[in-house]
Amino acid sequence: MAVTKPRNKVLIFRLTQDEYQALQTASSGARSLSDFARTKLLRSLGEPALDQQLLELKSTVLRIAELLEKES
């Protein structure tokens, strides 16, 4: 059995009914809604922000376009 650190901190935020239902739907199959939310939130900390991802994607598309122009 895995040894885990005790979870003794609480984070509270409010959701609309629609947001809550969407979260429940997305979490189907998870052990609990809290476990699902915790996992998603903590995983997102290691990912670049969406605006950063979009900037990187735009930069990549521009580089590809430049390479294609040079070849033609």
Helix and strand arrangement:
Elements (H helix, E strand, L loop, with lengths): L16 H10 L6 H12 L5 H22 L1
What does this molecule look like?
The structure is a single chain. The chain has 72 residues and is an all-alpha fold. The chain has one domain. Helices cover 61% and strands 0% of the residues. The chain contains 3 helices and no strands. It has helices spanning 17-26, 33-44, 50-71. The chain is elongated. The model has no long low-confidence stretch (mean pLDDT 90).
Helix-strand makeup class: mainly alpha
Biggest sheet descriptor: none
Described by the principal axes of the CA atoms, the overall outline is elongated
Total number of helical segments?
Answer: 3
The helix/strand order is: HHH
Global Rg: 20 Å
The multimeric state of the shown protein is single chain
Total domain modules: 1
Indicate the proportion of strand residues: under 5%
Helix content: 55-70%
Summed up:
The chain has helices spanning 17-26, 33-44, 50-71. It has 72 residues and is mostly helical.
Structure keywords:
72 residues; mainly alpha; 3 helices
